[in-house]
Amino acid sequence: MTSAAGPDRSVDRSRWLGVLGGGQLGRMFVHAAQVQGYSVAVLEPDPGSPAGAAGDAHLQAGYLDAAALAALAARCAAVTTEFENVPADALRTLALSVPVSPPAAAVEVCQHRAREKQCFAAAGVPCAPHAVLASVGDLDSPQIGALLPGLLKTASLGYDGKGQAAVATAAELAQAWTALGGVPCVLEKRLPLRHEISVIVARGLDGLTVHLPVQQNLHRDGVLAVTQVPAPDVDAALAAQAVALAERLARALDYVGVLCVEFFILADGTLVANEMAPRPHNSGHYSIDACDVSQFDLQVRTLAGLPLVAPRLHSAAVMLNLLGDLWWPAATAETAGLQPEPREPDWAQVLALPGVRLHLYGKTEARRGRKMGHLTVTAAQPEAARAVALQAAGCLGLPPF
Ligand code: ADP
Ligand code: MG
């Protein structure tokens, strides 16, 4: 079929889409794909995963399992990933027989902080002053002094502030490097952050790129806690600059799919790229409820070759992350010293507030720091969304923001 938009090369609804990974991002991708008429196969070794439970088929096997990859490629018209640490070789193997996005090479860049920083530099995108510490000898390199106080981050496998240590002196650096296992790391200068924002772009096979509105993010203990859109402290010029930088990175990576770029706004108002995620991002979850096209819809569209249109924010939104900590009540005088039992928060209380939507990921075990769900508050005006979100936070025992 041809239309004003050109020939339709999109994936037929009789075909399946595939996703590597069974986490909550995969679950929300599955939901978006199913709404759009696709069946989805999930490759995930864990028998009880959020996406595995939602998918039309769950291939329970390792990501590098040759038979499972062959089965996925045979069943699906296109395959994507929902987590960045998927082995790039799994993507490469699949790409021999089925379209895969994002491309393995782009995922590999995002998996490794040193490669990521090289990519920023090559694309002319400013990032934190840093040094790559590949081996113990690098701890003595003369440039280290200028990077302290800094943050030591493992080059790979870090997330939610894990695999990181704040270091103020050369002695602390040596200690932290050993504590992190002596693996390759990046030492970054600690920057004076005024705000944190992120930009989510989606790029099609034809290079056409669209983006969500800029998100403003608050982290607690290295984990995303609150996202606000529109970003309350970002003017239009700075937002446009962030979007342009994210689009430049997508182009530099020859990217197809959804890419998130996290930025710092420094005390002097300048913009610095922090890191990239080759997939939808926690800071984009609000788009399910506040935009006419969500980040997961965009992932489906880029994967299935459907048209990309710029998402429109139809409501102001505040997203609150719901970590497993909420399942563990604070000790009272009566319970002090006792082993507390986890219990589900009182959702009815927050759902009684206007504009609240609760998303739970179907994880049975609540652990501290584990992302169990999120809630999005939407309203016609940002002030109203914020006021209700503060009430919801109060009900749940979350700190104000
Ligand atoms: P993760 O992969 O765990 O998200 P990040 O590199 O994004 O790791 O770091 C987590 C958080 O730590 C950031 O969102 C920011 O709040 C803080 N942070 C990271 N790097 C720096 C830095 N160079 N200067 C100041 N704060 C930082
Ligand atoms: Mg981060």
Tell me about this structure:
The protein has 401 residues and is an alpha+beta fold. The protein contains 12 helices and 19 strands. The strands form 4 sheets. Strands 11, 12, 13, 14, 15, 16, 17, 18 and 19 form a 9-stranded antiparallel sheet that branches. β15 and β16 form a beta hairpin. α1 crosses α10 and α4 (88-95) runs antiparallel to α5. The protein is globular. The mean pLDDT is 95. The chain binds adenosine-5'-diphosphate (ADP) and magnesium ion (MG).
Top CATH class of the largest domain: Alpha Beta
Measured between the Cα atoms of the first and last residue, the distance is 50 Å
Number of strands: 19
Structural class assignment: alpha+beta
The tally of structural domains comes to: 3
**Averaging pLDDT over every residue, what do you get?**
95
Which ions, cofactors or small ligands are bound in this entry? adenosine-5'-diphosphate, magnesium ion
Tally of helical runs: 12
**Regions with little confidence, pLDDT below 50 for 5+ residues:** none
CATH topology of the largest domain: D-amino Acid Aminotransferase, Chain A, domain 1
Label the CATH architecture of the largest domain.
2-Layer Sandwich
For the biggest sheet, the summary is:
9 strands, antiparallel
Name the shape in a single word: globular
